[in-house]
Amino acid sequence: MAPPGSTLLGRRGDEALFVKSWGSFPEVEVLPNNHRTSVAGLQVGVNRIRWVHPASTPDHRHDDAEQVILMLSGRMEMTIDGEEYEMAEGDVAVIPKGVSHHGRTLGEDAVFYEVFAPLRVQNLVGFIGKVF
């Protein structure tokens, strides 16, 4: 069944395909000034991240999934495997499994999507079992 307020596009077995606005999903502050909205299928997860300047993440890595970051607005500095990269609207970063990385805003808020494959259930804590 598609979530309320969405359009059911089709069905494959028990999996529903639907279209829904990002604004209809809850946003959670996961770190100071770091807000996450999450949606997931069975094999891939997508987060919309909104960093309110000044915002940063500590150095970390994901041993269970690769990560793709797609910048929507603002600017941030990403340090990936010890190399610094400035990212702005339209930029994309691919971070393989197990590679250390961290980021921080550069003088303004930043909004970006992060895609994880396979799905990282950790990103859905507090959302599992809820329909929005």
TrEMBL record:
Residues 55-115 form the Cupin type-2 domain. InterPro entries: Cupin_2, GPI/OXD, RmlC-like_jellyroll, RmlC_Cupin_sf. Keywords: Metal-binding. SUPFAM superfamilies: RmlC-like cupins (SSF51182). Gene3D superfamilies: Jelly Rolls (2.60.120.10). One of its GO terms (molecular function) is metal ion binding. It holds the Pfam family Cupin_2. This is Cupin domain-containing protein.
